[in-house]
Amino acid sequence: MNTKNIGFNTICTHFGEIKDQQFKGAISPIYLSTSYAFEDVETKRYPRYFNTPNQEALCKKIAKLEKGESSLVFGSGMAAISTTLFAFLQKGDHIILQRAIYGGTANLINEEFKKHGIDFSYVDSLSIEDFENKIQSNTKIIYVETPSNPLLSIIDLNAIGALGKKNGIITIVDNTFASPVNQNPIVLGIDIVVHSATKYLGGHSDILAGAVIASEKNVNQIFEVAKNFGGNLSDFTVWMLERSIKTLGIRVERQNKNALKISKWLQKNEDISTVYYPGLKSHPNHELAKQQMKGYGGMLSFELKEGLSADLFQKNLKLIKSSMSLAGVESTILSPHLTSHALLKKEERSSQGIKDELLRLSVGIEEKEDIIHDILQAIEKVKKQY
Ligand SMILES: *Cc1c(COP(=O)(O)O)cnc(C)c1O
What we know:
Layout: H1 8-14, H2 53-65, E1 70-74, H3 77-88, E2 94-98, H4 103-113, E3 119-123, H5 128-133, E4 139-145, H6 157-167, E5 170-174, H7 179-182, E6 192-196, E7 210-214, H8 216-229, H9 235-245, H10 248-268, E8 272-276, H11 286-292, E9 299-304, H12 310-315, E10 321-322, E11 332-334, H13 346-351, E12 358-362, H14 368-385
Parallel strand pairs: 2-3, 2-4, 4-5, 5-6, 10-11
Antiparallel strand pairs: 1-7, 6-7, 8-9, 9-12, 11-12
The protein binds pyridoxal-5'-phosphate (PLP).
């Protein structure tokens, strides 16, 4: 197979796979061994060295999907993110972050970085000028997330990549929400991509994993720290993730379609006051999303009309499950003010545009009519009880 120009779904299904030479089985065999015979001084295979046969096979696939040279997979998204950050930051360094980043990443920064003497600045806006104004002589990393959680705002990755290059600063994007189906930050000039593979890459709400994709040189630097921190993914889960990614393309294409249709329907519904979805023309960053994304993703948020309880609404849903996580084949929903953003004060939330009426929907692969019907019947119940 000429693998240079193979298409996305073919990469998902086949790329990197281990050929079963012994029995000619159709899928990669799983090698659970934690100890391997010494081949030579260079090749010591061991799970915590990130070089077992299944780890190497999966990393080839993930790197190819993100159009990067190399990748590593980790035991969680946070293991990938923390290891990557600590690989490039040391005492006295400075990092610039977008304000609207994943709560766990914000906790890592806010709770751990001071202890290690690493300085950080948040940028409240999406303006590249505001990022530029925060650059100091010791700035080593610019870190962003797009689409962001929970309002799905879009930041200009081309411009962030260029800003990093101009100033010799490494740029990192958390590409979890978009998935490689919809966005490849490396092609847009970003240095490093991180993923919570727990979300779209896994896609079935049964795997906790993370990944980082970058140049060979940057991945080697991350590996040197990773083997010390020991955050590798177990080979059984590596194998599960390889299997899950086979359907990544078709899952996310379907979720894109469902989310676009549902967001348009929500926008027309008079009991919904606002809908946040980058695929809607009304979204403030729609034009930018159109330029840098191939699809708009399966995540959307909306606000019920004032006075309608978001809590009661969720309790009356029958098909859509209330759940902390996201990106599974099943539709799930959460109320950010009660969950992901519960630790913030109400004023902090409102300054970030997160109201109590806001709900974040992770659109699954079910029939869109059934999802819409579920939302409709729950709204009717809330109105009756109101
Ligand atoms: C879930 C998530 C993470 C953290 O991943 P874990 O696998 O839970 O450690 C990081 N970034 C984003 C955007 C996420 O949604």
